């Protein structure tokens, strides 16, 4: 989980270098990630994978992921990595709300309070109406798409094998974006090819390692480690772009991490009791 949660921000750091330093379109960054990820995930294809692609719900899930990844690339083009990841963490909060409303999952007052605190942390980072930027606006939209994707993944978890679901989300997202992105491929110098591969491989590798992690430990045990992404994002933003969050953003990061850890530990305790 530590490696996975470091690889995902590393992939987005490479994506930010592509769009901000080398002027590649954020659409190209998202599309190339799906195309290369699909090729890497080909060994996961099984006979039932093609059958899954006839299910409209699988296409809906892929569209939600496409919206999330595309918007976060637009966010990274102008906003610091740590700020983008903090705003993006509205996703688990939105997923919680959707899971309660649509999937009828059990809600507890304490967990709802912790989710509200996490949302307050996101607001401290984004500061709508004060120092809000278009980049953080894209990050929020990306988080909402990703929250819906998480809920859809929970909804469809029994439909297919994890490897098949991973391949379909990458392949169908590539299919959906190809008509809009095929003309956006920049001149592929050595640096551009290296960053494009790094963006895709780190992101795909991090998500692939998650499959192995969740196959070997309970989700409640692993959930707290998800917040290591924020720490990794801060470190990478400082090392690569010399960006350090200001005091208010750091307070928001602590609120998001603290509320998330408390929620995960609360969930773990309730599982043990049952």
Number of separate strands:
0
Class based on secondary structure composition and strand pairing = mainly alpha
Let me know the average pLDDT: 86
- DSSP helix fraction: over 70%
List SSEs in N-to-C order: HHHHHHHHHHHHH
How many helices in DSSP terms?
13
Low-confidence parts lasting 5 or more residues at pLDDT below 50? none
* Percentage of β-strand residues: under 5%
Per the principal axes of the C-alpha atoms, what is the gross shape? Answer: globular
Distance between the termini: 25 Å
Radius of gyration: 18 Å
Q: How is the biggest beta sheet arranged?
A: none
Q: Structurally, how many domains make up the residues?
A: 1
Defining traits:
single chain, 274 residues, 13 helices, mainly alpha, 80% helix
Describe this structure in words.
This protein has 274 residues and is mainly alpha-helical. It has one domain (2-273). The chain is built from 13 helices and no strands. The chain has helices spanning 2-21, 26-41, 47-52, 56-78, 81-88, 90-102, 109-126, 134-155, 162-181, 190-216, 219-222, 228-241, 247-273. Helix 5 (81-88) crosses helix 8. The model has no long low-confidence stretch (mean pLDDT 86). This is Carboxylate/amino acid/amine transporter. It comes from Shimia thalassica.
Short description:
This is Carboxylate/amino acid/amine transporter. With 274 residues, this protein is mainly alpha-helical.
Task: Explain the layout of strands and helices.
Blueprint: H1 2-21, H2 26-41, H3 47-52, H4 56-78, H5 81-88, H6 90-102, H7 109-126, H8 134-155, H9 162-181, H10 190-216, H11 219-222, H12 228-241, H13 247-273
């Amino acid at each position: 989980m530590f490696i996975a949660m470091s690889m995902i921000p590393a992939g987005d750091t490479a994506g930010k270098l592509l769009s901000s330093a080398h002027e590649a379109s954020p659409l190209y960054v998202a599309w190339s990630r799906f195309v290369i990820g699909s090729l890497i995930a080909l060994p996961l294809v099984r006979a039932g994978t093609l059958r899954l692609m006839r299910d409209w719900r699988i296409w809906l899930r892929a569209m939600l992921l496409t919206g999330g990844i595309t918007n976060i690339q637009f966010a990274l083009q102008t906003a610091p990595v740590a700020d983008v990841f903090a705003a993006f963490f509205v996703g688990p909060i939105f997923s919680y709300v959707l899971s309660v409303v649509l999937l009828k999952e059990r809600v507890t007052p304490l967990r709802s309070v912790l989710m509200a605190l996490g949302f307050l942390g996101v607001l401290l980072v984004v500061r709508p109406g004060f120092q809000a930027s278009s980049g953080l606006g894209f990050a929020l939209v990306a988080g909402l798409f990703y929250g819906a994707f998480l809920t859809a993944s929970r909804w469809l978890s029994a439909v297919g094998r994890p490897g098949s679901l991973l391949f379909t989300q990458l392949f169908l997202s590539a299919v959906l974006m190809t008509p809009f992105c095929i003309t956006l491929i920049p001149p592929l110098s050595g640096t551009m090819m290296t960053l494009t591969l790094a963006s895709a491989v780190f992101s795909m590798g991090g998500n692939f390692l998650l499959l192995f992690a969740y196959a070997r430990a309970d989700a409640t045990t692993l959930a707290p480690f998800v917040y290591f992404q924020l720490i990794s994002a801060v470190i990478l933003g400082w090392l690569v772009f010399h960006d350090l969050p200001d005091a208010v953003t750091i307070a928001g990061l602590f609120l998001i991490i603290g509320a998330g850890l408390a929620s995960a530990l609360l969930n773990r305790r309730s599982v043990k009791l049952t």
